[in-house]
């Protein structure tokens, strides 16, 4: 089994499965958007200079953008 790591470490084009969210650091809107443990996501865009990260949630075919400061609280496995 691979170790989980924070979402901000993924490169553009990589897919991963969400394993854990630090709920004390993230607003409830993340759960409402479908960022739940077991969800497969793909990084579509990473803004320069610690800009936003564009994610494709494969199960709902939804595109969202989150801050890098929020991505460090979402742990994924490839």
TrEMBL record:
Pfam name, any one: FeoA
Keyword set includes Iron: yes
Keywords: Iron
Gene3D superfamilies cross-referenced by the UniProt entry: 2.30.30.90
Matches recorded under SUPFAM superfamilies: C-terminal domain of transcriptional repressors (SSF50037)
Keyword Transferase on entry: no
Span of domain Ferrous iron transporter FeoA-like: 5-78
Protein name: Ferrous iron transport protein A
